């Protein structure tokens, strides 16, 4: 495979999931072809490539979980599985001619800003390159998080994370422990329960689970969406509108979530007849504080006779024996960690060194903060897709990604406006977010987040960092975010320049 040493690109995009591919498409639509997409794996797909565990599917309706510029009229179900979403991303890659720009098996090891040259120096597993602008689209759900459990190294059986599923290992007839009760576990447990001899679920906190109103999309519907694009657009608009109307309950009026809780409790009582088990599975915090999950099969699986629930976290491992915090023990052959990802301590932040010689992780040691979810102060010409405070609690992240792509497009236009050189680097410009602008923007966000269900609902979630600060969720509608990211405000940035040579 060819080395990258000496290559220079106008834009380097890191990652080829929804964010990275979306950025690549938008750059091409802006007339920019001098860009590369650096992908650590051998194929596109991001989290939808990595998360291939049994039962993996999306909890956002299919027609809302696609790019507006690349609708898919042939979704087979109202909620799509991992296989179909990954196939969609492959289709987008080919439809928009992105493969020549992608450098596969090319993991980014380090990014360093060169203030003299006004460009990024990028070290990868395939060599070095430079880029005028770097776009991090690694996403918050890309680095699996496995807790540090004493004695785990002594376990003689199989251990893997849900995002690194070992498909060569046969779970049939095995005693399996699933650690965690988040979105992945809710899909994994009912998928493997019929196969295993015994399944032990270690549950620190029970999730709120709502019915999954899913069905197959028939051929007539698919034909209609394909032949009459307005029908698919209308369906998407209705799905979007319903979710926009829900935002107020999450952000301003958490008491209004009571009806949703009643539906979830009805769902629990209908599926689980044992009162003692229902007590174990009933959450003790406000719905919405953690991610609300959708499943029709999770509760029935937990009620099966070959399933044990340990209402406590995993404390230690001694050989094949797993010991919970409450002292309960389980003998198992395999451990599946469904324990989430490094969201507020993302690895790319430790590998990115800015203008002050500090890493993004060091700058964010008191909490992630970026202007409009995109620009961190001291990191010129560096943009994050799905950056701080851009995640959602009830709608499609594709909507947020497309808003950030608007911001990326205008960012590049602003750079062009400030470039006044002959094209050899002289007269080049860079934009660096002003610390005062970043601070003002994030102070407003934190004030809005103060009364949201994510901050007041009485739970500990991945929305909060180690200090309890909410640096992940957007406290408004997707329409508000689109307005906030429609254009770059030049007053919020400092312009850095390499002076052009004097005229004759």
Automatic annotation (TrEMBL):
Family: Belongs to the FAD-binding monooxygenase family.
Enzyme Commission code(s) on record: 1.14.13.-
Coiled-coil ranges (or none): none
EC category name: oxidoreductase
Protein name as annotated: NAD(P)/FAD-dependent oxidoreductase
MF term (GO), any: oxidoreductase activity
Keywords, ordered alphabetically: FAD, Flavoprotein, Oxidoreductase
The UniProt record lists the keyword rRNA-binding: no
Highest taxon of the lineage: Bacteria
Keyword Metal-binding: no
């Amino acid at each position: 495979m060819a080395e990258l040493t000496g290559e220079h690109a106008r834009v380097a995009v890191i990652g080829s999931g929804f964010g990275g591919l979306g950025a690549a498409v938008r750059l091409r639509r802006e007339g920019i072809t001098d860009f590369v997409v650096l992908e650590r794996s051998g194929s596109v797909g991001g989290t939808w490539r990595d998360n291939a565990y049994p039962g993996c599917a999306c909890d956002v309706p299919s027609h809302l979980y696609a790019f507006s510029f690349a609708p898919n009229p042939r979704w087979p179900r109202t909620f799509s599985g991992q296989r179909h979403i990954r196939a969609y991303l492959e289709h987008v890659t080919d439809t928009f001619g992105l493969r020549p720009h992608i450098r596969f098996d090319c993991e980014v090891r380090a990014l360093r800003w060169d203030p003299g040259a006004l460009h990024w120096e990028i070290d990868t597993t395939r060599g070095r390159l430079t880029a005028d602008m770097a776009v991090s689209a690694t996403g918050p759900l890309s680095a699996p998080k496995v807790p540090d459990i004493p004695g785990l190294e002594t376990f003689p059986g199989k251990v893997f994370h849900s995002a690194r599923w070992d498909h060569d290992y046969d779970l049939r007839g095995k005693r399996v422990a699933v650690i965690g009760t988040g979105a992945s576990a809710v899909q994994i447990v009912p998928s493997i329960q019929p196969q295993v001899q015994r399944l032990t679920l270690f549950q620190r906190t029970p999730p709120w689970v709502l019915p999954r109103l899913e069905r197959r999309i028939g051929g007539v519907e698919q034909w209609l969406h394909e032949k009459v694009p307005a029908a698919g657009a209308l369906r998407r608009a209705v799905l979007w509108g319903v979710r926009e109307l829900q935002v107020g309950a999450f952000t301003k009026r958490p008491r209004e979530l009571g009806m949703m809780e009643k539906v979830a409790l009805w769902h629990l009582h209908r599926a689980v007849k044992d009162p003692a088990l229902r007590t174990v599975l009933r959450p003790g915090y406000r719905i919405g504080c953690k991610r609300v999950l959708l499943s029709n099969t999770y509760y029935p699986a937990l009620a099966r006779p070959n399933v044990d629930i340990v209402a406590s976290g995993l404390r230690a491992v001694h050989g094949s024996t797993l010991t919970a915090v409450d002292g309960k023990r389980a003998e198992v052959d395999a451990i599946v960690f469904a324990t989430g990802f490094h969201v507020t301590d993302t690895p790319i932040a430790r590998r990115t060194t800015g203008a002050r010689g500090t890493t993004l992780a060091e700058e964010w040691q008191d909490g992630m903060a970026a202007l409009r979810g995109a620009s961190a102060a001291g990191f010129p010409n560096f943009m994050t897709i799905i950056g701080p405070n851009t995640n959602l609690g009830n709608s499609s992240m594709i909507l947020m990604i497309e808003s950030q792509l608007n911001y990326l497009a205008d960012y590049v236009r602003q750079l062009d406006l400030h470039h006044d050189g002959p094209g050899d680097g002289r007269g080049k410009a860079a934009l660096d977010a002003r610390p005062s602008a970043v601070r003002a923007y994030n102070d407003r966000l934190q004030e809005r987040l103060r009364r949201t269900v994510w901050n007041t609902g009485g739970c500990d979630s991945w929305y909060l960092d180690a200090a309890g600060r909410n640096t992940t969720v957007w406290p408004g509608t997707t329409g508000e975010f689109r307005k906030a990211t429609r254009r770059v405000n030049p007053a919020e940035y400092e312009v850095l320049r390499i002076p052009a040579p004097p005229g004759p």
